[in-house]
UniProtKB/TrEMBL annotation:
This is Nitrogenase iron-molybdenum cofactor biosynthesis protein NifN. GO terms for biological process: protein-containing complex assembly. Pathway: Cofactor biosynthesis; Fe-Mo cofactor biosynthesis. Residues 19-428 form the Nitrogenase/oxidoreductase component domain. It comes from the Bacteria.
């Protein structure tokens, strides 16, 4: 069990984490016809928007209540109402996902009460649009908490609590923030290959996959439909991926009685085998031939990649669940976690990280611990630390803005695990070439 070392610095020197409001907005982008609305100053939204646009290279429908100094002092209820009605009139979204920021949370405003008053007072104007609130202060937590809170809020607001007919072929999948567009597409394809009908919430593969709609859309296009969310109680099984998705899975079980199974990671042979066995049990079908073939390819890649990964020292920095996802797999391949840095110390996933200690900190902490590492694993903001240390960088997570196609890289199930091995081994070969053959 790893020992979690708390943050001791009063400021982040080279920030590692992204904020809760950004994580919540990210999750709302996985709902069809949605617009995330950050309740706070315009600067908070601009910063989150810049990160999302640079990561996806797409237009992101992110809006703000644009709170100024006066509004923060007297209260933001009027600004919130004005923003909601303006969005409804201009873009006609199916869902407005409100993410609070430090500007209103530090003042301890009753935003939930404000939202309920607006919905009650403006019921006629808001027909056809759901308004969902996620309380996500910037000064607490990080991107995975924001993602988790938004998904929980959507389920609690929309899922029908009454007992429904259970469709034996229908399952719910709650992916964590760290799954890419390609990961979610592959999850769906794998479930469908077993004859299942998966409802994925949130489904960013529909809204952020880089496709260009025929007509300009002011909201998200694609993603989980509101009708699917309302009918989640008709699913036979819920599958949550990542410790931070336990909370929305519990909310769904509490409301509808749908049981859930939690997978902390879907990277690595053993983790994927468990997932495939579950799909086979739920569907009452044998594992399809293409899935079995993918497993054989992974086994071969593990044999080949072991020679490049075994004994290597890894310095890794990420959100807790992604930290566990990759560190667990690297150690299974024979590597050693020389340094582990994360954004928040509250996740139970940190207890399972295969390292002596996990430091809650920033990228400057990673840099101070990674001098003897063979590889640094973190997002694009770690490139300068890697360059100063002369250590190669493997980019994972968010944001990733200095490489094309980051959202189309697989990291889970048999094929994704195989691709992670290839990425790792290729970086090691490019930067640590083997000794030449003796002459």
């Amino acid at each position: 069990m790893a020992r979690v070392v708390s943050q001791t610095k009063s400021a982040a020197v080279n920030p590692l984490k992204s904020s809760q409001p950004l994580g919540a907005a990210f999750a709302f982008l996985g709902v069809d016809g949605a617009i995330p609305l950050l309740h706070g100053s315009q600067g908070c939204t601009s910063f989150a928007l810049a990160l999302l646009v640079r990561h996806f290279n797409e237009a992101i429908p992110l809006q703000t209540t644009a709170m100024n100094e006066a509004a923060i002092i007297v209260g933001g209820a009027d600004r919130l109402e004005e923003a909601i009605l303006s969005l409804k009139a201009r873009t006609r979204p199916r869902l407005i996902g409100i993410c609070t920021t430090a500007s209103v949370e530090a003042r301890d405003e009753d935003v939930a009460g404000d939202v309920e008053n607006i919905k009650r007072k403006r019921a006629i104007e808001l027909v056809g649009t759901e308004v969902v609130l996620a309380n996500t202060p910037d000064f607490d937590g990080a991107i995975e908490e924001g993602w988790s809170k938004a998904v929980t809020a959507v389920i609690e607001a929309l899922a029908r609590p009454d007992k429904q007919y259970r469709n034996p072929r229908k399952i719910a999948i709650l992916p964590g923030w760290n799954l890419t567009v390609a990961d979610i597409e592959h999850l769906r394809e794998t479930a469908v290959s077993f004859g299942l009908d998966p409802v994925i919430l949130p489904d960013v593969s529909g809204a952020l996959d880089g496709s260009i709609p025929e007509d300009w859309m002011p909201t998200t296009y694609g993603g989980t439909k509101l009708e699917e969310i309302r009918d989640l109680g008709a699913t036979m099984q819920c599958i949550a991926i990542g410790e931070h998705m336990r909370r929305p899975a519990e909310a769904l079980q509490r409301l509808t009685g749908v049981p859930y199974v939690l997978f902390r990671s879907l990277t690595g042979l053993e983790n994927v085998d468990r997932f495939i066995r579950l799909l086979a049990a739920v569907s009452c079908k044998q594992t399809p031939l293409n899935v079995r073939r993918n497993r054989m390819q992974l086994q071969d890649a593990m044999l080949d990649g072991h020679f490049h990964m075994a004994g290597k020292k890894i310095a890794i920095a990420s959100e807790p669940d992604q930290l566990f996802q990759f560190s667990d797999f690297f150690t299974a391949m024979g590597a050693e976690i020389a340094a582990a840095v994360t954004t928040t110390g509250t996740s139970k996933a940190l207890e399972m990280v295969p390292a002596k200690t996990v430091k809650v900190g920033d990228l400057s902490d990673l840099e101070s611990l990674a001098a003897t590492a063979d590889l640094i694993v973190t997002h694009s903001h770690g490139r300068e630390a890697a360059r100063r240390l002369g250590v190669p960088l493997m980019r994972v997570g968010f944001p990733m803005f200095d490489r094309f196609g980051s959202q189309h890289k697989l990291t889970i199930l048999y094929r994704g695990t195989r691709d992670v091995i290839f990425d790792f081994a290729n970086i090691i070969q490019a930067n640590h070439p083997p000794n030449p053959w003796p002459t």
